[in-house]
Amino acid sequence: MVGATLLSILLFVALYLVLLMGAGCLLWWVATHYFDHYGLWLLFLHLGAVAAAGMLVVFLLKFLFKGRQTSRENWLRLVPEAHPRLLGFLEQLCAETGVALPRAIYLSPEVNAAVFYERPLLSLVWPVRKSLLIGAGLVNALTLSEFKAVLAHEFGHFAQRSMRLHSYVYSANLVLHDIVFRRDKWDEVVANWRGPDIWGSAAAWVLTALVWLVRQVLEVAYRGVNLVYARLAREMEFQADRVAVRVAGSSAIIDALYQINRASAAYHVALGHLATALEHGLATDDVYYHQALRLAEAPAAPAAFRSAAAHASSNAFLFAAEEVTLKADMYASHPTGLQREQHARSPFVPAASDARSPWLLFTQPGEVRRLVTAKLYRHSIADAEDRQAQPAREVEAFLSAETEELTYDPCYAETYDTRLITAVAVEALDALAAELPTGPALLALRAELYGPELHRQMAQVKERQKALQRLHLFASQQVRDATFEVAGVPFPARHAAGVIKQIEQEGQASARWLEEFDRRAAALHWRLLGCLPERQPGWRSRYALQMHLRLGLALTQASLRSLHQLLPEIIGRPLNESQCRAYLTQLAQLQQQMVVLLLTSKKSALLPLRHLEGFATVGDYLLQATSLPSSAVLSAAWITGFVSLLDTVQDRYRRLYFKNLGALLRLQEKAAAEYALTIAPPERADSEAATV
Predict the structure, then answer these.
(1) Nearest CA to 203 among 370, 77, 365, 30?
(2) CB 72 within 8 A of CB 49
(3) H/E/C letters for each residue in 285-297?
(4) pTM value?
(5) 363, 85 contact by CB (below 8 A)
(6) How far apart, in Å, are the Cα atoms of 664 and each of 428, 614, 659?
């Protein structure tokens, strides 16, 4: 595969040089061509052709003038002498793997580890020492044995001579991706050149066709280079895994691979929570304190995790087989988790395990974590630079209170966790509730409402969603498999669209059931609260707010969907005057709809919710320091700003919606408990009171 990869790169270079020489020859021929008789229009066309040929040459060369320095602003460069235990650990590991110490060691905030050339272009022609990148999120989640296995894997890459090819492929990809996929000022100039005047823009249209053709040819080259290199890259990963197995044993690398996925998910959940805290002026001094807590809250790992005996057996695997084989897997640079686990166990190599944290290798690990956290806030999180970091425990107290309000009772079977409840007008509740009984029969209906049928329906919803995700891959021809299964029944891949329709019809029936469920729930609690007159006004206000938030969130989501459907039509293509007017009208409609919604939200009182006591209305929280969207303009700057505003409003509407829903559900739970006491026989009520 090394030879095939090298050949693909050489073919790409040859193809690129042929295209560049062809463009240069075209420019020379057009510029030096002489017509016997020049008229004004012919002169104008000739100059346009020269300009177009020159633009084609610029198109093929412009990547040379673009800076591509990788941003390392949130990386912390470690001084090895300041961390003698880490240095000793790395020296010992280098001796065991037979490689030289890295040129430099960097600590990044993420859950990752990598070797890289600091000067990838120089490495193409000159031997350059590789550097090591360690993610603090990785250090925070692994045991010392797993950390050793991961670094041994990276040092295995140090020893691979084929790593040099990575630099060649990396450089080729930079060129190809820039030419084929990136749109910049050059494209904007050509787009402005094209116009309704055929004589003035004829050369621009010819240039557009030539560039389209060049991009199609180079896209084939891009896919070819990456397809060949992907096979080599997967082989390199297996080889590096063998180094890790030799140095740290099979279990360490298997457990590390599994834990990295869990740690990455916990890290991003923690960042999402901390973004909410930042809205309230709270910045933590240790992101990794929160990551560890989120990791502890994650679903339990399989029994085989961190069990050498299980790894040594032939039938206990941490990773599951992929449900489908994607065509995109051909371009994957890493094998699947199951493939790597199988490879690491063939043969199984036992080794002693050290469950201590890798943080012990760092001098003053708490200070290191605070430095990395500060860099993360300063360079990766907008508007966070001037925030004074607070102790992580204090920030976590805020997050715990926030999470508590957004966590619903398991009896609801997650029916409220992601979907929007059905809108039921408060005025219609009297008529719906009048049909319901009172007393024990009403409580029996409530128990039935949240009983086994709800759990069965929600289980079917989850299975249906999972099946649809898989089937859409087949319908869009992204899968290499010839068949698929639904409920144990096999189907040919070509039948995916028909099966999708069938499942969607089943989903419509389920949606109708859930709509009726929401109406029954609202009517039942209205009936119940009719017997608790002191609580009914509070519930009515909370429910009315929920309906407002539901409408606002639904409208914002619809506006974002419409806008994202428009963007591909507007950006990166020439528009005539009538198209500009039509798109501007659509943008203006979305802008006006948003203005009306936000102004209406300014009139909707925000009932008490934890951490939002300072906002009097829904609109106050949605906008805060943000202004209403300005009049629509067909420009990239306006569209980008409008999308950003809609994203912010959607996120804040979603937060309000689910926080208020949690408050509404808890109010209903308390009301049901009080109602049960009012209808209980006196001796039973006394007994319950004594028990409490």
Answers:
(1) 30
(2) no
(3) CCHHHHHHHHHHH
(4) 0.83
(5) yes
(6) 18, 20, 9
